[in-house]
Fold this sequence. Notes:
The structure is a homotetramer of 442-residue chains. In chain A, the strands form three sheets. In chain A, strands 3-2-1-4-5-6 form a six-stranded parallel beta sheet, sandwiched between helices. By secondary structure, chain A is of the alpha/beta class. The first copy, chain A, has a domain at 5-170: 3-Layer(aba) Sandwich (Rossmann fold). In chain A, helix 1 (17-26) runs parallel beside helix 2 and helix 15 (375-397) packs antiparallel against helix 16 (400-409). Chain A has 17 helices and twelve strands. In chain A, strand 7 and strand 8 (203-210) form a beta hairpin. The first copy, chain A, has helices at 17-26, 45-62, 74-78, 92-105, 115-139, 152-161, 174-185, 217-225, 244-248, 258-262, 264-276, 281-296, 307-310, 316-329, 375-397, 400-409, 417-429; strands spanning 5-10, 33-39, 67-71, 83-86, 144-147, 168-170, 193-200, 203-210, 253-254, 333-340, 353-361, 364-367. The first copy, chain A, is globular and about 55 Å long. Chains in contact: A-B, A-D, B-C, C-D. Chains A and B meet through helix 9, helix 11, helix 15, helix 16 and helix 17 of A and helix 9, helix 11, helix 15, helix 16 and helix 17 of B.
Amino acid sequence: MSKGIKIVTIGGGSSYTPELVEGFIKRYDELPVRELWLVDIEAGKEKLEIVGAMAKRMVKAAGVDCEVHLTLDRREALKDADFVTTQLRVGLLDARILDERIPLSHGLIGQETNGAGGIFKALRTVPVILDIVEDMKELCPNAWLINFTNPAGMVTEAVLRYGNWDKVVGLCNIPVNAVFEEAALLGENNRDLFFQFAGINHLHWHTITDKNGKDRTDELIKVMYGQDDAKSIVANIKDNNLIWEQVENLHMVPCPYHNYYYYTDKMLAEELEDFKNNGTRAEKVKEIEHELFELYKDPNLDYKPKQLAERGGARYSDAACEIINSIHNDKRTTMTVSTRNNGTITDLPAESAVEVTCTITGKGPVPYNFGSFKPQERGLLQVMKSMEELTIEAAVTGDYGTLLQAFTMNPLITSGDVAKEVMDELLEAHKQYLPAFFKEGK
Amino acid sequence: MSKGIKIVTIGGGSSYTPELVEGFIKRYDELPVRELWLVDIEAGKEKLEIVGAMAKRMVKAAGVDCEVHLTLDRREALKDADFVTTQLRVGLLDARILDERIPLSHGLIGQETNGAGGIFKALRTVPVILDIVEDMKELCPNAWLINFTNPAGMVTEAVLRYGNWDKVVGLCNIPVNAVFEEAALLGENNRDLFFQFAGINHLHWHTITDKNGKDRTDELIKVMYGQDDAKSIVANIKDNNLIWEQVENLHMVPCPYHNYYYYTDKMLAEELEDFKNNGTRAEKVKEIEHELFELYKDPNLDYKPKQLAERGGARYSDAACEIINSIHNDKRTTMTVSTRNNGTITDLPAESAVEVTCTITGKGPVPYNFGSFKPQERGLLQVMKSMEELTIEAAVTGDYGTLLQAFTMNPLITSGDVAKEVMDELLEAHKQYLPAFFKEGK
Amino acid sequence: MSKGIKIVTIGGGSSYTPELVEGFIKRYDELPVRELWLVDIEAGKEKLEIVGAMAKRMVKAAGVDCEVHLTLDRREALKDADFVTTQLRVGLLDARILDERIPLSHGLIGQETNGAGGIFKALRTVPVILDIVEDMKELCPNAWLINFTNPAGMVTEAVLRYGNWDKVVGLCNIPVNAVFEEAALLGENNRDLFFQFAGINHLHWHTITDKNGKDRTDELIKVMYGQDDAKSIVANIKDNNLIWEQVENLHMVPCPYHNYYYYTDKMLAEELEDFKNNGTRAEKVKEIEHELFELYKDPNLDYKPKQLAERGGARYSDAACEIINSIHNDKRTTMTVSTRNNGTITDLPAESAVEVTCTITGKGPVPYNFGSFKPQERGLLQVMKSMEELTIEAAVTGDYGTLLQAFTMNPLITSGDVAKEVMDELLEAHKQYLPAFFKEGK
Amino acid sequence: MSKGIKIVTIGGGSSYTPELVEGFIKRYDELPVRELWLVDIEAGKEKLEIVGAMAKRMVKAAGVDCEVHLTLDRREALKDADFVTTQLRVGLLDARILDERIPLSHGLIGQETNGAGGIFKALRTVPVILDIVEDMKELCPNAWLINFTNPAGMVTEAVLRYGNWDKVVGLCNIPVNAVFEEAALLGENNRDLFFQFAGINHLHWHTITDKNGKDRTDELIKVMYGQDDAKSIVANIKDNNLIWEQVENLHMVPCPYHNYYYYTDKMLAEELEDFKNNGTRAEKVKEIEHELFELYKDPNLDYKPKQLAERGGARYSDAACEIINSIHNDKRTTMTVSTRNNGTITDLPAESAVEVTCTITGKGPVPYNFGSFKPQERGLLQVMKSMEELTIEAAVTGDYGTLLQAFTMNPLITSGDVAKEVMDELLEAHKQYLPAFFKEGK
């Protein structure tokens, strides 16, 4: 493709953008990105200008032929795009603070993608993404949508089910981080291990076999959870052992977010402590972001600063670049992404989004078949998928009862009066981003 | 069958026995029970004698030709039986009190068939039932096992999966009570309504259509939950409204035990109040039972006293008699029982036990096909079934990790340290009934 | 329902109509049919008048309060109908003669509902039935469609998939005849046996258990096929033993049309003999019908003549009356009909029509769950269902390639040149009834 | 693995062996085969010696450190093997001649792996392979079985279902040949195309996408079948166009053996012509093999002669070497092989063997998920799988009725008397290789 590639990044003012730019620069020889459009909204204009200026410096320093455009006009940007990446945050970090603090104020887990907070993040995000898809149908009908806006699994499913758009990949950095860090824990090169992940975004399990065909899963579980100094591999989840007899019984490695479901009491206690000290994750991230943007303002900074890695999204944008690269060049890289189930996991509906290990081809992700889970994993996965389906439906319809059903189904929300109260409070707090729930006449 | 029928009732000293006897007497013309063997264990000898004497008086008063045998020798009783009913309670009501009070002492739901208590009731019961099945293979290989020992669904699945015994029906009085009471609420004769139940024991949903083919489900939900004075139809669950918007969204009628899952906070608050006052359900039942046995001692009492209905098992034994009658006479009565799924509910494994509406034929229950649930019901049902599978496996193997997995999966148990502590305490408390967990060398 | 019932019979000039009228008369007390509209097309006017006059005589003789209307105006008739029955034959018996003779002229099975002929009967019939459904949506949206036009399974599936009309039942007399005749062969009353049928129209298998729960299937197979004088139970299939070792291996009773698939060489040889003598089934039926209409002209005949039974549709119309009765009165009669699969047979798509044993309720047929077939039956059933799906799709779209695919898939059609030639010849022969295939520009 | 690899080739006297040896020599650097044991039976001793001597010359000429052992003692060879390949032919080519000529003498397709002949090849082969597996359990429990004995799919399924041996891969050269030849037809490098195959051995379909993600399947179908000079890509199937409208309707590329099912009349006519001239495929192969062995006797020949390619198994042994290489080195080569379904194709049982595109890892083949077929392909695939299940069961049990059922189900066998006669004649002809069918007392 001699003409070069056009990328549109919606939520371009994000602090993650420098990693994305770095990723494109690194791959320029095989993936010649000639146009990078950073799109944001009015409220994000200042950030867009800071990060956009830095992106231009990075490109210039790298000496690659790539125009960086900054715009608040999404439709202008989307015209003839090859790939659209979405990394937006509806309501910014202030909305996330509410998603964390309101549930915690009632004694429930408050978290970006899990529990009541995760449901509300989906409610705010799904309509915006579906709007973007409608624009894409008109302006760039051959483009791929690479979504890394959370909750990435629900967003992907919404695009598949309600957007009727197949060219979508949902992306999360948990699997790629696990591959790197767990290989190190096993004393192996990650290329010598075969990781097979299956589940849904932020709730998947995986097995590991080595090049001799030996299953190393139990060994890794022992290394990670069988001793006192086990280390979590995700920055926004505290170091947190699971209970040995339970995790040993899985014979699959859980993902870091499983801590919310496998060790609820401890996670809640820690969150409540942070809540008391005004130090929930979003509150900390806000500080980190502030510092990052201060750094980005430096007119001499023309490379990704190491502080970005602490932000919690390590390898996120790099993984996004690699997916784009692999689709564009049919590279058949093995990656774990959210895509349509279609029988890969026989325990979930065919039309669901699942997060599974795939080979990324010119026609997009082709999943490795997984089959069925043991009861150890199956029921939790299934209840979460039902909860996701209800949440997505509520996001699209604005139906109060469907939303309350999702709350009732969610294992991190105590059902009953407390569920309804938290839900009502969150609805009120996020009112401006939830027009479907506050339509005239409702 | 001119020879008459031989029934063996294991746990024959139960306070429910008089209803069973009444049921057989009532049906004597079409179901000539000539031998009724009441079997119990040494610890239940006194009760067996009291209730056995009363059974003899009832039979005599009715003037039917039926011998009532009392025995502590199960194998003697089983020889050539036609039907075996199981209504035993391993550890008696004292064990149930522990199942209730230990979880409650940690702030978790404590209940006979749900949560931690329900899991432990399964652990104690499954091995005993599997022993009975082994005896049946030898002594009465053509007999049917009609189980109404709780948790009836898990017991049925254990018999199917681990006992390799197909002639088993699990029975509960919830569906039959719903049919009678909900018909009354709709102002209809129950025979003019078609109730279709699907789910698992103590966690099923149903729809109702009338003889004009009109779906009356939403109307009933409105009657039951749409106003303040809604009345529960199960004695051991307090009157307890569900939250209207959530239950309305189901478009299926939940069962009374759904309250634990749909209104957890309120149920827990009520149970904690009872706990404080030494008035948990088992404690109350113990009193009621004591009074019942005092009544049963009356040498003039030769009919089922009305106080038995208050015990909570209304229509239980009568339903058991009707199943036996319908199998024996191929009556094709429509009843809702626990039986092998085999595709009836496509959301659950084929080999699972499910509680579904069936026609009871000479070859046992033939389920009406159900199909798939909406996400509203599906995920909760599936997580509970996985939890059941893990519990049954733990009951058979005595594996600590599998049991902890069941605890972690159970929506009524907060996962983490509290789950493990409650589990350890219950294991210790019920040690004598759990030899698989306390084998030499474990 | 005091107002009385309105029935519309499309194809009312059929020779079967007197049985239908007899059926309604017999059930008048519980099923008060006050209006019976016999509808036919111009080409059937004479027959409609003959049979209509006779219907009026029958009603009068019976002394029931029922108006019989004869009309060529389908829409007038459909207005406010309660039940619509379809017993039409597009192209009349002359078309059926072509369906039989054209395949036979190429050495292939030529038959009304199987092979190339059956496919073409579907092509002619499906569009007409879908037109009727469109009228029903407008004129009698609460009515049930009781279809006994062949191929009844494909017609039912077309209504479900393409007509988006749920209130449809497909009816065939094979199962009801089997119940009566096989009970007699076993020396039992049919009410003492439980027949469970599963499969698709004209290709189902069944098991039989008696009131003691004993499986009598193998015994019946022995009676029917294990000796030389086995008798077929369907008039339009000659007495025809199956090969003992093959049928014994099924452990399910095949239906009479299985002979085409299980004994293809013999069936073909017999058909070719009839073909040579101008005595294919349709040619014979044409003669029988002529004689029947001569009888019907008799102004003194006011009851169903016994000669009708020889026509081959014994118990057809009576079964139709019984379905109507059972839906209208929520009688819960056990009958085997074509209805939506929805998981009843797990080997076939959920949205397929299947022919299975149901209880007929006020909301229509509720199937007994069946589960999975053994490989003995499974593959044949599945290939036939795929063939049906392709045929129905071709009927709706008029796509030549899809139709050729159905021909290629059909086990009774040798694939290749012969398939294409027979198909082309049939297309030409039935051109006037296949507008979808001969649209301008195709 | 410094110790070097031990390969055991059962049926080592096969004319294919030189290709296998060439394949190992070519890969010696990454796959150091230090021991190659060629095993054969007494009847194959002469061939074994000829081909074995040549293998030794090849190894010597290549200068690789590999000992070639020739033996008739299978158990001696198997001890501590790393990989076992099976390329045996029970009854040699003379048995295959019977498989072809007996059905043809009754007017039915006679073919090595399809129709009656393919069923009998399975009957002779399955018991021998299961014996080998029993030896492997004892002598080399960590070895992989790479089977390329036909019918490779049924053999693989027999090993999985009845041998309880998971480390098995079934191999066929059809997919690898398709990849090379179809890429050429499209004017592309095969590495730039993504072929996804799904189905069963000798009955699969595939799609092709290019590196731009464009589906090229329809284009290839047009190239292959849309013009008069279409060329078959398999040596033992004559050039044979399919009917354009039918194959176009598939939107998947059929495999060469589909000709038997899609163009039965033409294939049969051609086979009958060969039959008349004593020139069926096996008869021709016998001649070719004779010539090959004459060549192999040449003491100067120390490389694979080009005449071997004409034998019909082009790329067969090379594919086998590549699988071994990919497993041994965890190379993750994309190959299409027979392996356990486990949900890859949702239309077939989970425990079936399917032939699907996989990545070959250190733990064996991991299939790419496929999902569901359209009705165009589904029914034919399903009927063939049922037929395979019945055949395998008959091979294991020796049950006459089960075998007759497989014959009745097979689309290439006319059911009825002719099926039974052909079957009886084949049973008699192959009696010595079918002890299960001729046990004492049967």
